[in-house]
Amino acid sequence: MSKRVRKAIIxxxxxxxxxxxxxxxxxxxxLPIVDKPTLQYIIEEAIQSGIEEILIVTGRxxxxxxxxxxxxxxxxxxxxxKGKTEMLEMVQDISKMADIYYIRQKEPRGLGHAISCARxxxxxxxxxxxxxxxxxxxxxxxxxxxxxxxxxYKTSILGVQKVAKEDTNKYGILDVKHIEGRVYKVRDMVxxxxxxxxxxxxxxxxxxxxxxxxxxxxxNQAPGKGGEIQLTDAxxxxxxxxxxxxxxxxxxxxxxxxxxxxxxATVDFALKRDDLKDEFEEFLKKKGAELIDKDKSLALVK
Length: 302
Ligand code: G1P
Hints:
The chain is of the alpha/beta class. The protein has eleven helices and 13 strands.
């Protein structure tokens, strides 16, 4: 019988140079969308999908990540004394989320290398990978959609969506054969191709279910794009040994590793919050009107 997907790896060892200076002394995964660190959205998605154990692969500054998902006795005491029960429960819930483990990637040698650091944690089971730069807002959690596809196909499943042709050089891009509905069979893949050489506009967007055979491949994986050990290169080899499928997941995906994507997520998530949406919507309407007026007066000058 095939094994269930119980464990997830979340790589969080990047240097976050796109968000300097905020990321000089704190990991980019701790930057908040409204008031919750991006990493917490990812962990909540994993847990809501049914993941039981999570390994976070950290880099240099992992302390704030560990502290965030650990108990904070002083803060809990203070909230309790002030009678702030709702906040107290929220803070306690974070530390009770799931079994979270940490390992440190000693050198930034790429995503493939980060995954290979998790070999002994995973053992011989299929596992999930969630990348922190991709936040997906969906009815059924994105990873759950992939896990459902895994239960049907019992092999590696890559979470994909179509992207604009001019963005294909930012992603792992697939060459696929359509199977049914949202499912494709992967024929080949390439990490961040030149736009004119891209085999399609179907991009891997930060969610994977991977069979454990990948670890043997990663062990011998030579550096690829950017001189890094690429997960996409190892998956390309895996696809020659066993079937890999892609699942075009439902949901709105935000690239929060990019400043504009981060701002878009902030606005959309704030508009979903009962405690903020009315006043924030008012503010946005005024802002929108101001921008339209500005455009009109510029048009008059021309
Ligand atoms: C990584 C992967 C790439 C994938 C992307 C999704 O790239 O290497 O294949 O499409 O995440 O966000 P990164 O954005 O970390 O350079």
